[in-house]
Amino acid sequence: MYNLARELLFKLSPETSHELSIDLIGAGGRLGLNRVLTKTPASLPVQVMGLEFANPVGLAAGLDKNGDAIDGFAQLGFGFVEIGTVTPRPQPGNPKPRLFRLPEAEAIINRMGFNNLGVDHLLARVQAARYRGVLGINIGKNFDTPVERAVDDYLLCLDKVYAHASYVTVNVSSPNTPGLRSLQFGDSLRQLLDALRQRQEALTALHGKRVPLAIKIAPDMSDEETIEVARALVEAGMDAVIATNTTLSRDGVKGLEWGDEAGGLSGAPVRDKSTHIVQVLAGELAGRLPIIAVGGITEGRHAAEKIAAGASLVQIYSGFIYKGPALIRQAVDAIAGLPRAGV
């Protein structure tokens, strides 16, 4: 059924197809149809960040930026759902066209630019959802906020989403917001992490619950830079690292139609690069901080590879677009087949 739906959706422009898919998945969730039309993955609960996940395969941020289809995605079998990236104020994102499919490579290039309806709209959608599983909310800065004041945007979003999120992801790695990736390094990173940690402590006291903070990083760092980031995250008391965002590399798509478009590349070509970052992080962190792996999972065995590399959880984005809900079940099954699965 999904293959037929994909064939029809792929006849539309990528962004139109994306918007229609969100509408359909959201409608299926409201009607309870998604649960009926898809096979439920095997039970594989896992505890990470002090949270109980139904299974270790989640939806990555970016597909449901505004939280419009939370129930629909949950009913497809994801063990957790991450929505966003959301910014303090609504913003249109970059000019269209800004989303490109490269089916020969099972890849996507996007330069969306954090297009979203703002944090208040997202919170209204969260409050309207019936889903009570693990919900991550991914936060970012507005495009016109100077990088030196980015912390203000992150803290504003954190204040608003804290009581409604199972965990909060801080996106400092999108390649489509000018200057954003500079926040991953040196004093800029440490100042941001310190501010987030202090605000987390204040919000914990205010709300009577501690919401974990995860930092999402890019795949385009050297091993030395990755190790430095890992050390900074541990020193600041962060709760998890998500590896990785999209890449600026064009390895694997050179010569393909749309392959030279600007933006972040996701899907199969980023798989090895992302897995390498996971391995480097795992070697440095040595279990002190859990890793959530995302990037290039287009078959179940790719999810198992991420876990074997040192991740505790995985997320899917581009693979879901190309393979549909069956990929969730295949990924859970592949992880379940690993020694000490879910530990």
UniProtKB/TrEMBL annotation:
<dbReference type="InterPro" id="IPR005720">
    <property type="entry name" value="Dihydroorotate_DH_cat"/>
</dbReference>
<feature type="binding site">
    <location>
        <position position="267"/>
    </location>
    <ligand>
        <name>FMN</name>
    </ligand>
</feature>
<feature type="binding site">
    <location>
        <position position="296"/>
    </location>
    <ligand>
        <name>FMN</name>
    </ligand>
</feature>
<keyword id="KW-0665">Pyrimidine biosynthesis</keyword>
<feature type="domain" description="Dihydroorotate dehydrogenase catalytic">
    <location>
        <begin position="44"/>
        <end position="335"/>
    </location>
</feature>
<feature type="binding site">
    <location>
        <position position="65"/>
    </location>
    <ligand>
        <name>substrate</name>
    </ligand>
</feature>
<comment type="subunit">
    <text>Monomer.</text>
</comment>
<comment type="similarity">
    <text>Belongs to the dihydroorotate dehydrogenase family. Type 2 subfamily.</text>
</comment>
<keyword id="KW-0472">Membrane</keyword>
<dbReference type="Pfam" id="PF01180">
    <property type="entry name" value="DHO_dh"/>
</dbReference>
<dbReference type="InterPro" id="IPR012135">
    <property type="entry name" value="Dihydroorotate_DH_1_2"/>
</dbReference>
<feature type="binding site">
    <location>
        <position position="171"/>
    </location>
    <ligand>
        <name>substrate</name>
    </ligand>
</feature>
<feature type="binding site">
    <location>
        <position position="171"/>
    </location>
    <ligand>
        <name>FMN</name>
    </ligand>
</feature>
<keyword id="KW-1003">Cell membrane</keyword>
<feature type="binding site">
    <location>
        <begin position="245"/>
        <end position="246"/>
    </location>
    <ligand>
        <name>substrate</name>
    </ligand>
</feature>
<feature type="binding site">
    <location>
        <position position="244"/>
    </location>
    <ligand>
        <name>FMN</name>
    </ligand>
</feature>
<feature type="active site" description="Nucleophile">
    <location>
        <position position="174"/>
    </location>
</feature>
<protein>
    <recommendedName>
        <fullName>Dihydroorotate dehydrogenase (quinone)</fullName>
        <ecNumber>1.3.5.2</ecNumber>
    </recommendedName>
</protein>
<comment type="function">
    <text>Catalyzes the conversion of dihydroorotate to orotate with quinone as electron acceptor.</text>
</comment>
<dbReference type="InterPro" id="IPR001295">
    <property type="entry name" value="Dihydroorotate_DH_CS"/>
</dbReference>
<dbReference type="InterPro" id="IPR013785">
    <property type="entry name" value="Aldolase_TIM"/>
</dbReference>
<keyword id="KW-0560">Oxidoreductase</keyword>
<feature type="binding site">
    <location>
        <position position="176"/>
    </location>
    <ligand>
        <name>substrate</name>
    </ligand>
</feature>
<keyword id="KW-0288">FMN</keyword>
<comment type="pathway">
    <text>Pyrimidine metabolism; UMP biosynthesis via de novo pathway; orotate from (S)-dihydroorotate (quinone route): step 1/1.</text>
</comment>
<feature type="binding site">
    <location>
        <position position="216"/>
    </location>
    <ligand>
        <name>FMN</name>
    </ligand>
</feature>
<feature type="binding site">
    <location>
        <begin position="61"/>
        <end position="65"/>
    </location>
    <ligand>
        <name>FMN</name>
    </ligand>
</feature>
<feature type="binding site">
    <location>
        <begin position="317"/>
        <end position="318"/>
    </location>
    <ligand>
        <name>FMN</name>
    </ligand>
</feature>
<feature type="binding site">
    <location>
        <position position="138"/>
    </location>
    <ligand>
        <name>FMN</name>
    </ligand>
</feature>
<feature type="binding site">
    <location>
        <begin position="110"/>
        <end position="114"/>
    </location>
    <ligand>
        <name>substrate</name>
    </ligand>
</feature>
<dbReference type="InterPro" id="IPR005719">
    <property type="entry name" value="Dihydroorotate_DH_2"/>
</dbReference>
<keyword id="KW-0285">Flavoprotein</keyword>
<feature type="binding site">
    <location>
        <position position="85"/>
    </location>
    <ligand>
        <name>FMN</name>
    </ligand>
</feature>
<dbReference type="InterPro" id="IPR050074">
    <property type="entry name" value="DHO_dehydrogenase"/>
</dbReference>
